[in-house]
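User: I'm curious whether this sequence folds into something compact or stays loose and floppy. Could you predict its structure so I can see for myself?
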Amino acid sequence: MKTNNNNASIIFGSTDSDVAVSNGKTTVTGSDTKVDMNRIGTYHPDKTGVTTLVHELYHNNALRTGQDAAAGDKPTSSTGPAEQEGQRVAAQAPDLTKQQAQQELQRLITAGAVRIIP
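Assistant: Here's the prediction. I'll summarize afterward.
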């Protein structure tokens, strides 16, 4: 947490790229996205985490498609296109019940597509 003039800046999520260098060429080979549900539950206006998760997936998709991931946070992280997309998705009505969502998450974990780190 950074503080400045009695204002706090809290990081709710991050996306970092994995890169490989071969023959002088840098290639993004993957990325790690982290979302801190404890901070979100305490400090974020969207306690579900949907806004933050979609915000980070916006950066992840930029990396995947060879775009500038940092551009999603311009002019700022709280006003840029990554945040706008997160807010847009969070505002949508759910398509799944809580039970269906839990079943889908379990399926993705079992398939190895999602890893939960405590």
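Summary: The helical segments are 37-43, 50-64, 81-90, 98-111. Residues 9-110 form one domain.
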